[in-house]
Amino acid sequence: MQVQLRAFVYLSDVIRLGGRVTDKFIDDGDTVIAVETWASNQRGKNVMPGSALVAPSRAGRNSLEDR
């Protein structure tokens, strides 16, 4: 994951987080998803652009419930 803090976020700001899948591919047998992320304030300014590579796991879908 990689993000950049590009602007100040003030106490009264309303921040909306978002993301979009930009690519899907296979890497060494694993499915990998590339994601573009952002955080926009109420003025529409992207204050935190970023990206991530995600490798979803099919095993243990309910593992959080078992804790």
Give a quick precis of the structure.
The protein is an all-beta fold and 67 residues long. The chain has strands at residues 2-3, 16-27, 30-40, 50-54.
Assembly classification: single chain
Strand ordering within the main sheet = 1-4-3-2
N-to-C order of helices and strands: EEEE
User: For the report, how would you describe the main beta sheet?
Assistant: 4 strands, antiparallel
Number of strands: 4
Shape: elongated
Q: Average pLDDT across residues?
A: 89
Rounded to an integer in angstroms, the radius of gyration calculated over CA atoms is 16 Å
| Fraction in helix | under 10%
Helical segment tally? 0
What count of domains describes the coordinates? 1
Q: What is the terminal separation in angstroms?
A: 26 Å
Which structural class do the helices and strands define? mainly beta
Strand percentage lies at 35-45%
Low-confidence stretches: none
